[in-house]
Every structure is written in structure tokens, then in C-alpha cells.
Amino acid sequence: MEAEIQPVATVTGLYHGTFSGLEPITKDTPLTLDEVRRNPVFYELELHPDQEEGDLIVDVIYDNMAPIRLQDLMRGTDIPKGVRFWPDWFEIPPYREMRDTDGRRVYPRAPGIHTVRIRTARRKRGQAGRARDFSPANGGSTSPVFEFTITADEDDVRE
Prior knowledge:
Helix content is about 5%, strand content about 40%.
């Protein structure tokens, strides 16, 4: 029987930056349209301690759209060696309207509840520019669905 392969990294949560630091994002702690326009969304990776040499590939799946490829994270340059947790960030797509994987219209920055899933895996050495492998055999992991709310700015609300 083969040994179970552990994910190279797992996502622990979504956060937004405030003057007091990073605060968790949930459905109960909404972001305003202004915050969405000006600030990225942070997420925290818990890195597997036994796979410290592995570089990472990361994709964001926002509102069930096609995965958005993020920059590869290299150990020793992007992520210091010996670190257990590492923050990274992404921006909510800046488009008024998009299509999800089923062809339905999606409004990424519209007020309402939105979803995010983040998948991670080990970056293979010759992988640059090729198809990315997020399978469990490659240390892949997909986060649970994170939900958060975007509210309209007071200036945008019309009576």
C-alpha cells in the first residue's frame, strides 16, 4: 500500500487589510465596493512541514468561473524556507460582467454573496507555461468554498 501523499499547502482563510492588520472575511463581515476596488483579498497558506523544498502553483476559482492562474511561488525567493504559514493575495476580477464555467452571467464586483475556492499543488520543475497538475498525487489541495459579501457604497445607493 502506498503512503498517503499530503497536500503541499492548504488554505486556512480569507482576510482583508485594515489599519489594525488582517481581519477575516466572512458573509457577516461585508466588504464595500470601495474596499473591493482598492484592496486585494488576502489568503493564508499552511505549508506542509515535510515538503519544504516544494515550489507551489496556485489558482483562484471565483464565483464558479474558470480558474485564475496566480504567480508560482518559489521556495527561497517568494516563500522563505522554514516558514509554516504564508500570506498571499489576489484581486477580485475588475469586470462588470463575466461568464462562469456553465456559461451563466456573473457579476464579480456586484453587491451580494460571492464565493472563492483556492487550489494549490507542487510545481513540477519543467512546468512553466504548461498544463498545471492539481491532483492529489502532486500534493494538490482545493480549499473549501469561502463565502463573503460585497455591499454597495452609501454613495452608490439610490433612493
